[in-house]
Amino acid sequence: MNDFLNRFFDSLIYFSVVMGKVPNKNKRCPKKPQTRRQRHPHDLDPEQLQKTLAECKPYSDGSLRKIPGYYLTRFAFVKGRWLGKSLAEIYEVEFSTKITDSVIKHRNLSINGEPAQSPHVKMKQNYYIESTVHFHEKPVIF
Fold first, then answer.
1. CA-to-CA distance for 8 and 57, rounded, in angstroms?
2. What whole-number distance in Å separates Cα of residue 126 and Cα of residue 99?
């Protein structure tokens, strides 16, 4: 029985090596590619987070707690259904908003970190869109 198990495990190891299931010790493992979040850590940057929190100190107004207005940056990777469509088409269908040159300037709308040139820029794979707006939270009772 013991001889059978030895031959079985030897053949199993041989089969695994031949099929490439066991890594070859002579080859170096390639570096693991970065994820999108690692390549674009916009919302994870600790300095940016602390700066935003410092700007948003709540204050009380009678029985209401309020937060002063702040700038909010929205970030989205281009989705498959957006490929080949213009920025104006995407905003009209997805967000029910008409995009013009003045809106692009006012919202600091950028594509891949560069300011958007016009609303007619076509979206490609691996593009991302950023939009910065001034935002006010609603007051809450405390």
1. 68
2. 22
Six token digits for residue 13? 């190891």
* Tokens matching residue 77: 């990777």
Give the number of domains in the chain.
1
Domain range for 66:
2-141
Give how far the C-alpha of residue 97 lies from the chain's centroid of Cα atoms, to the nearest Å: 22
User: What CATH number is attached to the domain comprising 27?
Assistant: 3.10.290.10
For the stretch 81-113, pLDDT in tens is 999 999 999 989 988 888 888 888 888 888 988
Buried-exposed string 17-28: b where 16+ CB fall within 10 A, e elsewhere? eeeeeeeeeeee
Residues 6+ apart with CB under 8 A from 35: none
Joined together, the tokens standing for residue 73 give: 């940056």
